[in-house]
Amino acid sequence: MNKSLNSFLKILFTFFLAILVGAIFILAIGENPIDAYLALLKGALGTKLGRGNVIAGFTPLLLTATAFAVAAKAGAFNVGVEGEVILGGITAAYIGINWGFLSVPLLYLACFTGAIVVAMLWGLIPAILKAYFNVSEVCVTILMNTVALYIGSYLVSGPMSAGVATPQSKPVLVTIPKIMKPSSANMGVFIAILVVLAVIWMTYKTKWGYKIRTVGTNPAHADYAGINSKKVFIGAMLLSAALGGVAGCIEVLGVHGYYLDGFARDLGTNGMLAALIVKSNMLFTPFVAFFLAVLKAGAMAMQQATSVPKSIVDTISAVFIIIATMDFVISLRQRRKLEKELKTEIASNQKEKGGDK
Amino acid sequence: MSENLGKIFNLSLIYATFRASTPIIYAALCAAITQQANILNIGTEGIMLVGAFTAVAVSYFTGSWMLGILAAMLGGALIAMIMAVSHIKYNSEICAIGMGINLLAIALTKFMLQVFFHTSGSFSNPSIVPIPKLHMTFLENVPVLNSLFNDWRFTEWFVIIFIILLQFIFYKTVWGLRLRAVGQFPMAAETAGIQANAVKYQAMLISGLIGGLAGAHLSLGYSTQFVENMTNSRGFMGVAAMYFGGANPVLTAMGCLLFGFSDSVGARLQAYGIPAQFILMMPYIVTIVVLAISMAVKIQATKKKQSSLITN
Amino acid sequence: MSEFVVEMKNIVKSFGEVHAVKDGQFNLIKGEIHSLIGENGAGKSTMMKLLYGMYPIDSGEIIVKGQSMGKLDPKLAIQHGIGMVHQEFMLVNDLTVLENVILGFEPKKGLQIDFDKARKEIQHFIDQYNMEIQLDKKVSQISVGEAQRVEIIKTLMRGADIIILDEPTAVLTPQETKKLFEILNNLKKEQKSLVFISHKLNEVMEISDRISVMRQGLHMGIVSKEETSPLDLTKKMIGREVFLHIDKTYEKAGKKILDVQDVWIPSQKESSKIRGLSLHVNEGEIVGIAGIDGNGQSELIEAITGLRPVERGHIFLDGKEITNLSPKKVREVGLAHIPEDRNTRGLNRTMSIEENLVAVEVDKAPFSRGMVMNTAAMDRHSEEMVKRFDIRPTDYKLPTSSLSGGNAQKVVVAREVSMNKKLLVAAQPTRGVDIGAIESIQKTLEEAKKNGAGVLLVSTELEEITSLSDRIIVIHEGTITGELSAGEANENNLGLLMMGGTVDHQVKEDMTKQQPKVDVEDHQAKEGVTEHQLQEGGNGDE
Known about the structure:
Chain B: It is a multi-pass membrane protein. The structure holds three protein chains of three kinds. In chain A, 75% of the residues lie in helices and 0% in strands. Chain A is an all-alpha fold. Chain A has a single domain, classed as ABC transporter involved in vitamin B12 uptake, BtuC (Orthogonal Bundle), CATH 1.10.3470. Chain A is globular and about 55 Å long. The radius of gyration of chain B is 21 Å and the shape is globular. The longest helix of chain B has 31 residues, at 276-306. Chain B has helices at 2-8, 11-36, 44-62, 65-89, 94-117, 143-149, 154-172, 174-184, 186-191, 196-222, 234-244, 249-269, 276-306, and strands at 122-123, 133-134, 152-153, 226-227. Chain B contains 13 helices and four strands. Chain B has a single domain, classed as ABC transporter involved in vitamin B12 uptake, BtuC, CATH 1.10.3470. By secondary structure, chain B is mostly helical. Chain C is built from 19 helices and 24 strands. In chain C, the strands form six sheets. A six-stranded mixed sheet of chain C has the order 6-9-10-3-11-12, sandwiched between helices. In chain C, strands 18-21-22-15-23-24 form a six-stranded mixed sheet, sandwiched between helices. Chain C has a four-stranded antiparallel sheet with strand order 2-1-4-5, with helices on one face. The chains are: A mainly alpha, B mainly alpha, C alpha/beta. Chains in contact: A-B, A-C, B-C. At the A-B interface, helix 5, helix 6, helix 11, helix 13 and helix 14 of A face helix 5, helix 11 and helix 13 of B.
């Protein structure tokens, strides 16, 4: 309790620092930061369209942020969520276009299932490479994102092309109903919330979640206690991928109604950003995702109302993440130095004893 | 068929490959130098992007490509130092801070683009002075060599020198030796009286300078404009190539040529109905496979060394 | 100026709560080989690392060549002619031998490193001390013995005349050791002063001029070789306190519960590889494995518990083969395991006491129903455990990172013992815990035995081994050097066996001969040995 209060205060502090840095930038270009921030808030929350945009932006972000966080809980740095969103999306589009022989409810189910399965198969590759060959999952997933992007791009400019100027697929037969028109917010947000709640519940209340948390914090202990750290690691990566798949499916069925090349741009990255800001604390992640969605939705209004470029919002988010990754409390540092000394001592005493890791 | 092949694989492909590779080579060297100090420079992409913007801006305002490059290098170094301080001093997880830097770079350059040039998307202007081409008149009448080597950009020639220079620095100089020692076994370096963290800071600083240069080449040499997110994963490709080449400059550059080669071939193949995407994704897949195989071999070797059945 | 090139007075050094050196004293005369001996964790390595400036001292004084050192760091130490050959070699694997030797002190020629000059200088030392070194090989390609010579050359290149060798022979074969000693003697002839840290008494007796003994961070005296004997040193190292024998009941040793048959186990270190080892543990007995750290105990334990592969041979638990089964399956057959390293294996320090208490059985009833964890059952269990094992603080929702060493270990013990498994493997169960916790942990092991479990106890604490075990197996470089019953074992004969047993050839040979015969009934033969040993001991100290 004390711990989570502490980390909450730290996030709050970091947040104000980021806002402050943003304010300095705004001042530097001769604008009033308070006006700018107010315009932003008004744009995001003051109108129905704004609120709709917040929800529309929040939906995929919530899923991708949770996807990153759940992998991080098992000790993985899964940059590959974006690729999983893409492949989940293209699969949902394929099924949604071609499997008209299914009844409507079954078709919905098939779209989601297909998206999840394909995304998981995709996520399996870096997971296995890391668990059994110790290949950096960061590098592999970054590379695989590009491959996924090309696969999607190929499919909608070739076999699945709608035959229009932009690379996109034909429309899908089933769509997720929109709410709050004219924004692209849709019922998918409820699916996302339910899925994320289930994942959070799983992480903190079930034995699988316990195993994931154990492996992420101390794989040697997990193996000793009879928890197969490799399998659990792979499992968490798969769950992460599945969430990416769901996000892709919702974007295709809910927002666009077809697969649009490049629709997933930055969805994975921004989700990762939200998770990194709170060090993958899954209870805080949704709030950061929401906050980022507000920033993004309000940015345009701010740019129109004042002459502050909307990219200030991304700058603030980036500063937020950079500060959040640092441990900058002095007293803590002092202690850690001592601990480090002790650790090297222990390590040098025990290195000889081996251990295959 | 063979006629088509001839069209694809002709002499100009060699320069096209090299041209496409150059920005990636710079990026890969930026990542290689920190990798030698055991810092995975995921922020290469961001450093490069900041460099690209700074180069265009300074070149535009001063009319000097040299000042543009210089400013880009300083900008890159500044970004790299943010990363260095937060990683080395404040224990930021390297991937997290690297990704943060990349996002900052994208946002900051967008922001600056709007502030300085009141535009978004891209900025090109005749006042941007590009890096000049090196025209050698004596080559004009030599058939093959002329098409191969004439009219290279200054920074394209320089990258070759630079690869050799880094190879020399890494493996022949005192600093390079210490850098490698710090990267592989910092305690050994410390017991030899070397301050490991100081070496790491130096590596990050130089990496920033190189990354800035990479960006400058991209925006003043490879093209003459700034486009939002114009690095387009070239930084990540550089990191992958660095893995591929084990942070050895020459081998790393080879890896980059693989990217450049598939880039140029892909562009040509597209004309013949082979989807460019397949060609474009090949280098990524190849890199993943190579990484996996090299790690598997390593694991087998360790297993053998530790076996009780074999006496060493 | 005093006669000493190095003097260390009243040295104190703690790492957090670990008091590594409580009262360290040391001095070194020019041109001598001075051995520093003591059990594992006695503080000898720490003392020398302090001299080399790797950590700052908390208090005390270090004087080098008459000059009192304020703040020491490795660079400064090197400048004052101190060189150290670390137990874990400070060599960069992917660099060549030549590069490693010159690291930090590279001769330059323009911008380049002057490799030719370096080569010449090194060759000079190679010839002078008759060392075989291949300068152009990568360190990963050379043998351990050669790597060690490289380390020595490194110190010489840096101009050291005071050379510290931290357990240099621990990783060497006897032949390599012989070669090393030749080099050390040559160095001594050249008026270099050497510090030789070791456990191995026979080697210490062979090579040293003077010997310092440390025990539990305390200085136990300096003696010259002529004035001492291995047994005398053993006693100084281990201490002569009367053993607190816990009431042992050893009448109902039942059927074989653990049966290890000719196992071969891999290891990073040559001397820790196990090549053909057999042992067994019966129900209702504690079998102790004594030995110096790093002689294959950890590998053996990991193999039994499923954490390390077995390359040849078989392991049976309760009649079922468990060779190369996963830890989970081995546990299901009937294993409880107190690991030697509670901070990495034993506990997940970021998690709560409660979560750690159920770590092993979290997916079984009552702690989880279906896939959901049953917090109520976990709370009940934790409450009971905290009470029964006197874990403090009693708030089991606190993370284990806030616990002291003793209480942290109690959490591990509580978890493993409360399951009442047939076999309890306990590795270093009382390492780094306070006296109170030691007593309660040892009592718990004794109780487990009374309840019919077979207990395999690994400890470097001889006192613990002798006071708890019914049978004692001594392990050295991955092989069993002897097996004794509780009655016949004492620190002397155990100590000798642990150190390879070459101090008294007679004893060792007797012991090996008797090994197959030694069991509970065979008291006659054993008493013979013990008496013989005690007589030996009498010459020394008594």
